[in-house]
Amino acid sequence: MRMENTKSLIVERGEENLLHHHRTCTGRSPTESRTMQNSSLRFEAIVDALQEIPGMNDVVFRDACGALEDVEKAEAFVAMDVDERKIWLFRKLGV
Fold this sequence. Notes:
Order of helices and strands: HHHHH
Largest sheet: none
Number of strands: 0
Helix content: over 70%
Radius of gyration: 22 Å
Number of domains: 1
């Protein structure tokens, strides 16, 4: 019984050390890191959706990234078909 308590304590301390090490190395907790990964995946989907739009140039692309900083707008934008994206985006940017 005492041995099990010792093992539990070692496991708990090991997890604490691992979490501390992760935070020290990255500056973020594992949960925050997963959130960042999800954000970058979302960003990749936005970039892919923008690249599918015909008539896109570098200036419009950068402006579009700014217009899509809101997560809800970005998710709706990615869900649209290419023609809807182009109409929505060009109206939003006044192009």
